[in-house]
């Protein structure tokens, strides 16, 4: 293990205290064999070491104590050399030990000062001997020399052992750290190339494998798989169940591969496979086998699940050579598969690219449409069926694009809903309709206006605030505004929708259920929802004029039943899409209250609407 800086400093301090103790004991032992002068030198050194030992205990990080100890040893050695046998004394070898410790534990200045002192001291001794100022030493061996030599050799050995131990420990720690680093790097490389949940390749790894595979295969199929309705599993049982299901599916898909083929988890519940291409028939069989494999029953913690998938396919090199580009094209094909009913495989068609490009350009233009005054309103009058007088108008949004010309609402409204722009368009329509209604009221035309609401306006939870703010800004009384909601919207977040509708109802604003009969037609929400009007969808109304076959009779009964139901619940009925007199007569016979359609008036602009108001006023008088 590697020591932290504080731990390492503590360890070095302990070693240093051991060295002081060894030198202290060596000085005491050496003094028993030494002569009077050497004995005095050694005992004085022992006393000095006691003082340094005490200083190290009191101030553990005192570098002065370390430097003082080395200087004490240096002076001790120098004194023994002078007293013993000059530079020929075996004590000279201790200088090396002092310099090693100075290099390891002291500052550069302390090391240099000790080194210079030792060099000058030894040089001066030799110079004095050469000049005859010092009696030439005569090497001699006695018991004291033997003891001193062995003591200093033991000290040197012990010091070298401590130093070597630290270095061995350091080298082992470095080796261990290196091994851990190698292991970490290996794990990082594994994580970088594999999906942590399923163990399949990730995008980066799959892209690299694809590049290698293109070098040996002339044609490949990139298969993009997206699971159908997988989110409800996570929502109902938690992500734990979803993760287990993904692991099971990953293993199933892996078994569908032939040698050399690629599989990766693209993200979430999406997988990408790369197949070797043989022929169209063989590929179709493999895609069908994939769908069947995915759809097999699976058991997750004693719960049975069955999951389907939508598949999109793009070919290399026919549709592209870049892996990410091919995945994008296969993703487009997969999306088309979902739109066509799911649980199917579709091959990418190049002509889709122009459609996507045009769609993107139209989205960009739609973002700027309101700011460029390209969105405007038309109004379709509603007529009382008994008197054929106008009793209301419906505000409808239209788009006259500078780039695309007139764009049908059937095109730009779904596009706005898909991109989230419908909220801004809905607020614009509501604001403009309220201001226009206020204008014709001031001109003496006592006619309310109805405005369609989008799912985005309801889901934001801010609808009451927006409506109240717009009414206050326009000065329009609440009872002149009717809001139309499709019945499918009423099935979403019932509590949140009920709360908003109740607040708006309390202000005197009425509601109508639009396109009735095309959704759930649930009597439960009719009983709880404070609607004033049911609008019978034009798809039923237009079929009233068809030949008297069995289907038409059923349709007639359906429309009649809706009108009777509405009257029972105290609701008024409006039939949409009335385009001929025969249909109008049938609805009158059914006692439908109001109608709207091209027979009586197509959607018209504000100026034309005022003219029509005036004409009806003249006719009625």
TrEMBL record:
Domain of life: Bacteria
Keywords associated with the record: Membrane, Transmembrane, Transmembrane helix
Segments passing through the bilayer: 16-34, 87-104, 111-132, 144-164
SUPFAM superfamilies, per database record: EAL domain-like, Nucleotide cyclase
InterPro entries according to UniProt: Biofilm_reg_signaling (IPR052155), EAL_dom (IPR001633), EAL_sf (IPR035919), GGDEF_dom (IPR000160), Nucleotide_cyclase (IPR029787), Rev_trsase/Diguanyl_cyclase (IPR043128)
Domain GGDEF residue range list: 218-350
Domain EAL: 359-617
Keyword Membrane: yes
Name of the protein described by the UniProt record: Bifunctional diguanylate cyclase/phosphodiesterase
Lineage per the UniProt record: Bacteria, Pseudomonadati, Pseudomonadota, Gammaproteobacteria, Oceanospirillales
